[in-house]
Structures are given as C-alpha cells and as structure tokens.
Design goal:
With about 170 residues, this protein is α+β, with helices and mostly antiparallel strands. The protein folds into two domains: about 30 residues; about 120 residues, Cytidine Deaminase, domain 2. It is about 35% helix and about 25% strand. The protein is built from five helices and seven strands. It has a five-stranded mixed β-sheet with strand order 4-3-5-6-7, sandwiched between helices.
C-alpha cells in the first residue's frame, strides 16, 4: 500500500497568493488540491476497479480532516460512482448519523449499492463500537429497500480499515 509523504525541504510546492507572489503551499492547501484532483479523476460513472481503488479515493478525500464527516459513495448496479456525498459533519471524535437521511439520499440517487466512510482525526482507524452499531443499523435500513452495503471504510491518517475485509459486514 502506498504511503502519503511529502518533503517540502527540497522542492516546495508553490501556490500564488492574492498579490501574485508564489509561496510554499501549506499542508491544508495541498490536501485541498488533492481532493480537487480526485474529484476530477473519479467523476460520475467512473468504475471502482478494485477495493484498493476505493480505499485510495477515500484516503484522498478524508485524510487530514480535523473533524469527522460521514460520507457515502452511492453506486449503480455495476459499482460505478453515482455520487460522493459527505452527509453528516461532526466534531473531533464523533458525528451523528441518521439512517432515514441515508436511505432518502440512496433512493434519490437510485443507488443499487453504497460504501460508507469516515475519518478518525485521531489517526487510529480502528472501528469503535458506535461505528459497528451505526453500520449495522444502516445496512438493515438499506436492505429494506434492496440497496446493498458493500463496505464501511475508516480512514485514520494514512491507515485504513475496511469492515468488509475484517468480516464486520
């Protein structure tokens, strides 16, 4: 698995400020640019060719956040991206997730499958009991309308935990 690393000591990335001067980019600016790049790369209809591709996409979207967000990848029957939505925003150690709202969005996008994801700003990607509970509740709610839950990915810094790979789904 690739590691995210950046050395600004030898060849800094530069950004242009409001006065037109180039300055070394901050980590936040670099992460924002990476999020924009991944959005351009994985647009609506793009197929996730492997679990590794899903993990890299979500790592790019969620690594480095200083708060939790609960995001959902809405997918079609061939597991192509319909939409990535950050549905709920939380604090440094939690976010309230409402299954009814997730089901409504899944139906609105006519999704056949979903992948959940959220970051752990602490850097520890180990799923909490609350993570397991909400995943189970969401999976049950979505199953009632025949929408499959494929995975729940927890991003902690550069590390990722997949519920599917751990047998937690």
């Amino acid at each position: 698995m690739s590691q995210l690393s950046l050395s600004l000591d030898t060849s800094p990335l530069l950004v242009r400020d409001d006065q037109g001067h180039y300055r070394p980019a901050t980590v936040d600016q670099i992460l924002a640019a990476a999020r924009q790049a991944i959005d351009q790369k994985m647009q609506r209809g793009a197929a996730f060719s492997s679990p590794a591709a899903v993990k890299e996409y979500l790592r790019t979207k969620l690594a480095g956040l200083d708060h939790e967000v609960f995001a959902v990848l809405f997918l079609d029957t061939r597991h192509r991206l319909i939409e990535y939505v950050e549905m709920f925003r939380g604090t440094i150690d939690g976010a309230s997730v409402h299954p009814r709202e997730v089901v409504k969005e899944a139906l609105r996008f006519n999704a056949a499958a979903v992948i959940f994801s959220h970051p752990h700003p602490s850097g520890n990607p180990e799923p909490s009991q609350a993570d397991r509970t909400i995943t189970s509740r969401l999976r049950e709610a979505l199953a009632l309308v025949e929408i499959r839950t494929l995975d729940h990915i927890v991003v902690g810094g550069n590390d990722i935990v997949s519920f599917a790979e751990r047998g937690l789904l």
